[in-house]
Amino acid sequence: LERATARPEGEAVRLNRLGELRVQQGRPGEAAGLFEQALAANPELPGPTFNLAVLAEEAGDEARAVELYERAIARAPKHYQAQFNLGRLYGRRGDAGRQRALWEAAIESNPDFVRGYYYLAKLLMDEGRELARAEELARTGIARDVTGQGGPLGWFVLADLLNRRGRTAEAQEAAAKGRALQGR
Fold first, then answer.
1. DSSP letter, residue 95
2. I need a labelling partner for 1 at 20 to 30 A (CA). Which of 25, 33, 37, 80 fits?
3. How many CB atoms lie within 10 A of CB 58?
4. Stretch 52-73: mean pLDDT, rounded?
5. In terms of C-beta density within 10 A (0-12 exposed, 13-18 middle, 19 or more buried), how is residue 113 classed?
6. pLDDT tens per residue across span 135-163
7. CA distances (Å), 94 to each of 30, 62, 90, in order?
8. Closest Cα to residue 121, out of 102, 143, 140?
9. How many CB atoms sit inside 10 A of residue 3's CB?
10. What is the separation, in whole angstroms, between the first and last Cα of the chain?
């Protein structure tokens, strides 16, 4: 990647990829510099902006993370990961309405984003609203997670929802399926 970034064509994409590699290597400072270089080469590329937002969030700079996630979404309106992460930050700030809108957008942007279904279902459940819709969201996420890579969360959210709706036997079955996935 270092050799490839020396070539002029596609420089921004390669710089971003090299930055992602530096993150995986535990070198966030170098990564941030590479993401900044990628943006200098192509300011419209959403990937480096998203990656800088993640680094800002991990460093505890929530205000900068929010600004960068917003910018990434402006550049790529269907960037479901930025929508999800930004929604989580708005939730921490107590803005459940904005959180919900962003999580709705995330699953609309990527209908296979199972974690988005689970978190949105839990948000609705925690608000005590739209429990039928929350159940539908949890079930949709579970149905789309054919390999079980989303882990047990969907089943546990579903179990909680069913329990709250007085469907104890179904809740126990869902919890058992979640525990079976947890054991994997």
1. -
2. 80
3. 11
4. 97
5. buried
6. 999 999 999 998 888 899 999 999 999 99
7. 33, 14, 6
8. 140
9. 7
10. 36
